[in-house]
Amino acid sequence: MSMTDKRLELNLKEPFFKEDWAFKIDFSKCKNFEELFLYLDKVVIENINVGQLFRDMYKLPERCPLLDTFIPFRGFSQNTLNEFKIDESFEKGFLEILNDIKNTSSSKEKNQKLFDYINSLTVGLRDIALKIINLTYSSYYTYNVSLSAVKDITEPFTNVPNLFIDTLLQFEFLGSNDSGEILPGECKNKIRELYTSSTEDQREILRYIIDRDFKIKMSEKSFHNVLSFTDKIRIIPYQRCEKMDKLNRIEYPALCERKADGKFQNIIYDTLSSSGFTSNRSGKLSHLNVIINELKEFDIATKYFNSIWVVPLVINGEAIIKVPGCNAPDGIFPREIGNGLFNSYDSRYTTFKTLVNKVTDSFSKTSLNRNVEELIKHLLEWYRVAQYMQIEAWNIIPFNSWLGLNSGFDILKSKSYLRDFLAKYKEWCLTNNREIRIQEIEGDFVNNEEEALTIYNNNLKKGLEGCVVKNLKAIIEHGTSTEGIIKLKDFKECDLRVIGYNPGTDKYYGGVGSLICQTECGGMIVSATGLTDDQRGFKRLDPNDSSLGIILKEGWDNNSYNGLIVNVKYNMLSKDKKGKPSLSLPNVVDFRNDVVVAQTYEEIVKGKNKKNG
């Protein structure tokens, strides 16, 4: 096709889901991006100008110029720098109290030692200690690295080390990036640089921050409760449902909602921020900015939120990809597909940079066709995620109440506020010819258990996951509900901690075969299978041709999952060949970024022969 030809129009029903399509265009004569843009302007797919999508991404800077700047800590006192000494006495004292708490068995004594230590510090040093706790445990910060990024840095730093507060300032800036300006690779390089130029004590604290855990057997909620008097601990709440065997806790009438099959989100709307969170640990996601920006437009036009309460506020729900006409239940992509697309969208800057480099290296070569087609495929994928993403919401809560870990809002009150907001939001969307991106999750009030189970069984027949039954007076709180919020699902699940891997064999040689997982108590160890090629460490030799096979990703680390919590689906409790506790047919469902503690064997046994949620 020449550049003067009529533009190519393709009508692909699922352009970001199909893998067998290819463009019949010869890009190989292009010598530079200017010529490539002229070609791409001729490619229109379902009224989408691919050249414009490319330009929008291509305008991004090579790197973020702010990487080398310091920004002040929010909430720091003015005299912090004067109180922070370069003799490393603070670092040593901080590590000593962590070690003391680690060796203390009583939770009450742990809490008291933490409380006494924080109170013993001057105001400025107290702020630094609290900031380290937040940098470690709060989802306000996302670093896009694991400990494997610094494990090869073992030589002591012989020059004058950074002032530690400067290192922490850099970590806060890197962790606060929620716009995608700083690519994960750049973040990793900067963290390695900071880690290298630190003392041994400083490195130990940085390892805790990177690993998101002090290893002292204290939960985020404990830190919040003990240090709430400082008003500077920002733990992101997350409520779990109880399991199906607790259905007798429900008092009728109750609310019965469809079990969402998407990616859990806490959408935090704040006029001064564009932050969004998926859970209490997994950090900010850029695909939420699509929703948050729309909420800002809605609020500016209607002044609605300030008429109800003072922002910020939080909407709890799940992100889904809903494509009219696709053959999934209710047009909603299953979690394994939809979440994969969200993950692709959130890493699009890194992927785009890699693909642009591949295109650059293949100008005037026949390989340019394949590389451009791969680039177009991803551009369409990201466009469709932004176009078809929706939120199925079930709660709306004032932000400050939510951060208190016990909101004071019960289900009925939250539902009333949510429905009022959605009615106004829908009216605004229709008036302005906008897509309705936020909707209430499907549900109804039920008068008895029989009605709830009828909805549950009907959902299963539709291919859905099940439903959630809620007491109307149940309080929205952090942790597992104790007041009657019950998840009904059709298979057993448990949360285990990854402690290693079994090497892959045959085509998976060199990668991960299965994950070795154990209960929190160590009483049960199983090997969970069901990993995708990508999770095993492999990628296609040719992204557009599966017949060419797969290759191991460059720099892949099989130990990268160690310490993570994984959700495992299984058929039943069983025994292994040695008679030790095990699971029948354990398969990996998802990695739980929203929890930090696995279940004990006793907790799993309590659900024996029951349908767990």
Explain what this protein looks like in three dimensions.
The model is unreliable at 1-22, 61-82 and 608-613 (pLDDT under 50). The protein is built from 20 helices and 24 strands. A hairpin with an 8-residue loop joins strand 16 and strand 17. It has a five-stranded antiparallel beta sheet with strand order 18-17-16-21-24, with no helix packed on it. A four-stranded antiparallel beta sheet has the order 11-5-12-15, covered by helices on one side. Strands 6-7-8-10 form a four-stranded mixed beta sheet. It is an alpha+beta fold and 613 residues long. It starts with 7 loop residues before the first strand and ends in an 8-residue tail after the last helix. 37% of the residues lie in helices and 19% in strands.
Write a compact overview of the structure shown.
This protein is of the alpha+beta class and 613 residues long. Helix content is 37%, strand content 19%. It has a five-stranded antiparallel sheet, with no helix packed on it.
